[in-house]
């Protein structure tokens, strides 16, 4: 009996030694995550679905991971960065539109009249987005977005917007890809805007960026071809629009999803309702000092119903203040 | 001088010897293609864009190849296979729809009345497609398409439809992928129908299948989630719809495109209008004996304007009768 027990213990020790390097590797790959419940849940999930012979094993082709962008991969305060781009474009384009001096909501943008701008509501917003995002070719829009991203600075950090990304999430993207996952963005942001920086900043190529889309039209002008963006939404990739776009573009149900707001609820529900082991994560903005703290009452990135769902269904909720050692990459260089 | 010449000749010979294995490999990889102009153009293109240091070199990430499906990757006669599926579904569903016994175009389908069916035109067709392809979840539609594909036989060959694929094109897909290309379907066929067989038959995963789409809706029925297909087209992925869907889903311009009909013209134009070396190919159905012969006057897969464009712009036009040793895989086993 003693012999058998010893043998069993040895087996256990050998198994442990075989597993230890994997755990250590995972720790190396998520260095900005404290060893809290979120990091543990991520590592446990990835090891379960990637270990051959595991009952939870998932073939590489089906390892689809989807991420919201605003508030999940980069900050979204004091307002969505794409909206700041749209406001900046109104100012850049104003000389070509003298009528904007008297026409709302453009007048309010040009005069920095926040109150009137806010009062213009969704209708005013759509006018601004339409005037700055449509009526031009995809090639021209890309140039406009590139120009802005290359020079614009975040109003609080004064850093380029592409540096307002979350270091722990960059590490998570890398960790998943190193484990055979295909990483996608599924965001309410407009698809061509995100494609301008997603490959360089997140390592996510254009064909893995899904977002809100405008109706577009192929144009043939005497053999010169272009794709015109029309002022009509094709898909609002928010809320129930997210499972719809996932099925339309990917055609597979993800096994891993990360969001931060009620706009991600249906994506998280759709992901976790599939068969087999699934992961749903929520970035909870709890860090007023290093980033922002907001949830149930926020106008931007409201997290209310999805927070209740997370608690009821035991989804992973990341406490940004407590679980992230660093927030943005530039803070890594702080003394 | 003689010495220099000899040295130069030796250099040429060495270079030739280095290139020969590559050419030989290409020949091995496209065994169903005769050594005609199409095969030569394909191999020359692939070698140019994949040879590091070549002025035409294209990085792996940008090696996007797009293929039409009906008439390009599989046959499309005597009518589009998806239409045969729709007609079969009308018959299967008829017991649940007693009203179809008197309602056109369903009555015509049930009575095999081809004349009345043809006379019902596009409006009749959309009724049939709507009744068989929409009002159900994506999961149910997938089951229906799988059931049909598993049992239905082609009326002429009596082979399963998934065997009506073109052996030379299967080899071309493999050859491109072996050279770092990402292969996509961009077809007028409905996206979820093609996804049922594209991975197994073509090696093309669901997320690389682009097609005609219906508007879909996320449904939450007491925590049971599904995606409902509504009887409204979201995108008709034909003609000018093809560059639109390519930009929307892939977000990059392909460098290689293959089609067979006027519905592929804009995809070929959009592909070849990009900078750098590009390839446009057309399958010309010239083989009445082994497949079908049709082009300018055909109702299905009409090839007229695209054939003119191909001649004007020196695109590759595959003479099926003269350039393909085999058409369908099952013919490989013929004595």
UniProtKB/TrEMBL annotation, chains A, B:
Hey, what's the signal peptide range on this chain? Answer: 1-26
Spell out the Gene3D superfamilies in the cross-references: HAD superfamily/HAD-like
Q: Does the keyword Protease apply?
A: no
Keywords assigned by UniProt?
Signal
List the InterPro entries: HAD-like_SerB, HAD-like_sf, HAD_sf
Q: Is Signal tagged as a keyword? A: yes
User: What Pfam families does this protein's entry cite?
Assistant: HAD
What is the protein named? Answer: Phosphoserine phosphatase
Organism, scientific name? Pseudomonas segetis
């Amino acid at each position: 009996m003693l012999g058998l027990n010893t043998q069993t213990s040895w087996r256990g020790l050998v198994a442990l030694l075989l597993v230890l390097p994997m755990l250590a590797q995972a720790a190396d790959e998520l260095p900005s995550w404290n060893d809290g419940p979120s990091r543990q849940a991520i590592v446990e999930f990835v090891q379960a679905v990637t270990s051959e012979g595991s009952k939870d094993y998932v073939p590489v082709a089906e390892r689809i991971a989807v991420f919201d962008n605003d508030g999940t991969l980069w900050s979204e305060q004091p307002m969505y960065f794409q909206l700041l781009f749209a406001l900046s474009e109104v100012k850049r384009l104003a000389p070509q539109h003298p009528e904007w001096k008297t026409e709302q909501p453009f007048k309010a943008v040009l005069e920095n009249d926040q109150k009137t701008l806010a009062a213009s509501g969704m209708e005013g917003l759509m006018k601004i987005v339409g005037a700055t995002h449509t009526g031009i070719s995809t090639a021209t829009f890309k140039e406009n977005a590139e120009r802005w991203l290359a020079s614009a600075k975040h109003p609080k950090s004064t850093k380029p917007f592409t540096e307002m990304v979350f270091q722990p999430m960059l590490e998570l993207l890398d960790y998943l890809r190193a484990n055979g996952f295909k990483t996608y963005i599924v965001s309410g942001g407009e698809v061509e805007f995100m494609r301008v920086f997603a490959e360089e900043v997140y390592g996510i190529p254009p064909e893995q960026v899904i977002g809100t889309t405008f109706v577009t039209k192929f144009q043939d002008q005497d053999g010169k071809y272009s794709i015109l963006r029309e002022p009509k939404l094709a898909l609002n990739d928010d809320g129930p629009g997210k499972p719809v776009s996932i099925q339309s573009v990917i055609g597979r149900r993800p096994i891993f999803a990360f969001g931060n707001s009620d706009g991600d609820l249906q994506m998280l529900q759709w992901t976790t309702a599939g068969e087999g082991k699934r992961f749903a994560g929520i970035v909870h903005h709890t860090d007023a000092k290093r980033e922002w703290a907001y949830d149930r009452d926020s106008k931007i990135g409201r997290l209310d119903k999805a927070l209740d769902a997370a608690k009821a269904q035991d989804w992973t909720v990341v406490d940004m203040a407590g679980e992230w050692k660093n927030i943005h990459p530039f803070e890594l260089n702080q003394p």
